[in-house]
TrEMBL record:
<dbReference type="Pfam" id="PF02272">
    <property type="entry name" value="DHHA1"/>
</dbReference>
<dbReference type="InterPro" id="IPR038763">
    <property type="entry name" value="DHH_sf"/>
</dbReference>
<dbReference type="InterPro" id="IPR001667">
    <property type="entry name" value="DDH_dom"/>
</dbReference>
<keyword id="KW-0378">Hydrolase</keyword>
<feature type="domain" description="DDH">
    <location>
        <begin position="18"/>
        <end position="169"/>
    </location>
</feature>
<protein>
    <submittedName>
        <fullName>Bifunctional oligoribonuclease/PAP phosphatase NrnA</fullName>
        <ecNumber>3.1.3.7</ecNumber>
    </submittedName>
</protein>
<dbReference type="Pfam" id="PF01368">
    <property type="entry name" value="DHH"/>
</dbReference>
<dbReference type="GO" id="GO:0008441">
    <property type="term" value="F:3'(2'),5'-bisphosphate nucleotidase activity"/>
</dbReference>
<dbReference type="InterPro" id="IPR003156">
    <property type="entry name" value="DHHA1_dom"/>
</dbReference>
<dbReference type="InterPro" id="IPR051319">
    <property type="entry name" value="Oligoribo/pAp-PDE_c-di-AMP_PDE"/>
</dbReference>
<feature type="domain" description="DHHA1">
    <location>
        <begin position="245"/>
        <end position="327"/>
    </location>
</feature>
Length: 338
């Protein structure tokens, strides 16, 4: 954060406030970790805080300190709307456009509160009085740590905050292997461990709590994988029927798309997952090197994200979506095979 942002934030937080903290729809480890950590921090500063999620989040994140207090817009609609209506400030974390909160968007658009954005995705919208946006930082959790540090409040970081921040950094860096992981990231993680983050327990709770049905679903996904050697690309499909067959629960497909990138010479990996209730195929894109899946998703699938990790959607049938996707690849062959 720069000096002007820190000064402005200190002024906004100089007296007790009612603060809503909002992650994106289908929140992941970074979204839940950053919102809970910020909530714990601001509560310790004397503010009334509430994390308001657009919908539910995976079971493997529900152990996190404060997770049981999160209000879910789909389940606690009235309470969420009331809190937003009466909020003094609204922090939006790990997203930068109201289009990323689904049906909650209208509530945010009509809110009278001032907004503070903390996010590391590309091309932020202009809705906040303070926009802390940095696409070079590994995760929103790393940004929340930096915010707390810039406010001069590192001593406020306790084991609850440390565990939340560690979880988000770990998950959004692919256990510290992605390019955005820097020496500063590791120094922050080391301090979080000193503050009480239990790295072994966090890894176990996030990665080692699979159900048999999830592993069977993974087997189905890998069986469905198609490799397009000409374009150094691999894609996976999962239909609603397949999800239902293996008792899909929210979060079960987390990380499936990355298996494509474990193949030799594959630079572009995609997964298409049907959501019959919404009438769409949700798409996750991953890449290695300089191929920008953010631009690919924005240009062709109403999405976006980071250079090497992005999302999108399609309202076409599975076959139409796949055919369209494959038809685009010749335009990117030079980038994918360089």
């Amino acid at each position: 954060m720069n000096f002007e942002q820190v000064t402005a934030l200190k002024k906004l937080l100089s007296s007790s406030k009612r603060i809503a903290i909002v992650p994106h729809k289908n929140p992941d480890g970074d979204a839940i970790g950053s919102t809970l950590a910020l909530s714990h921090y601001l509560s310790k500063k004397g503010h009334e805080t509430q994390v308001l999620a657009p919908n539910d989040f995976p079971k493997f994140l529900k152990w996190m300190p404060g997770a049981t207090e999160i209000l879910n817009f789909e389940r606690h609609n009235t309470e969420v709307k009331k809190f937003i209506e009466n909020a003094d400030l609204i922090f939006t974390l790990d997203f930068n456009d109201f289009g990323r909160v689904g049906q909650m968007a209208e509530c945010l658009e009509n809110a009278s509160a001032q907004f503070i954005m903390v996010d590391h995705h590309q091309q932020p919208s202009d809705y906040a009085v303070i926009t802390y946006s940095d696409v070079t930082i590994s995760s929103t959790c790393e940004m929340v740590y930096t915010l707390i540090d810039a406010m001069g409040d590192r001593d406020f970081i306790d084991s609850d905050i440390a565990n939340c921040l560690y979880t988000g950094i770990m998950t959004d860096t692919g256990s510290f292997k992605f390019k955005a992981t820097t020496s500063k990231t590791h120094r922050i993680v080391a301090e979080l461990m000193d503050k009480g983050a239990d790295n072994t327990a966090i890894h176990e709770k996030v990665y080692d709590t699979n159900s048999p049905s999830r592993l069977h679903l993974l087997g189905c996904a890998l069986k469905n994988m198609v490799i397009l050697e000409e374009f150094n690309t691999a894609y996976i499909t999962l239909t609603q029927e397949e999800l239902d067959r293996y008792d899909y629960e929210k979060g079960d497909t987390e990380g499936f798309v990355n298996y494509g990138l474990t193949l030799n010479n594959i630079r572009f990996a995609v997964i298409f997952i049907e959501n019959k209730d919404e009438g769409i195929f949700k798409i996750s894109f991953r890449s290695v090197g300089d191929f920008s899946v953010n631009e690919f998703a924005r240009n062709h699938f109403e999405g976006g994200g980071h250079t090497n990790a992005a999302g999108g959607k399609s309202e076409k049938s599975l076959q139409e979506t796949i055919d369209y996707f494959i038809s685009l690849l010749p335009n990117y062959k030079k980038e994918l095979t360089a």
